[in-house]
Specification:
Strands 1-2-3 form a three-stranded antiparallel β-sheet. It has about 70 residues and is α+β, with helices and mostly antiparallel strands. It has one helix and three strands. It has one domain. About 5% of the residues are buried.
Amino acid sequence: MRGKTQDAKQLNHSDVGPLTLTYQAFDVRDAPGQQLVIYHAEPGSPDVEALSLLGAVNAIRRQTARDPHP
């Protein structure tokens, strides 16, 4: 078991471009081999804005998929 790990990861998202997110991975005690991984952006960083934009883009896509002819 690895316990808990933390590091930064660079991603390139097709909608918002490059993101640098910090992640923490936790072993799940009752499920050997499974991990819970949480990604977050540093407060005040451009990555926070990019994640907010990504959330808005996703919301618009879901709304459009539900009601294609407003």
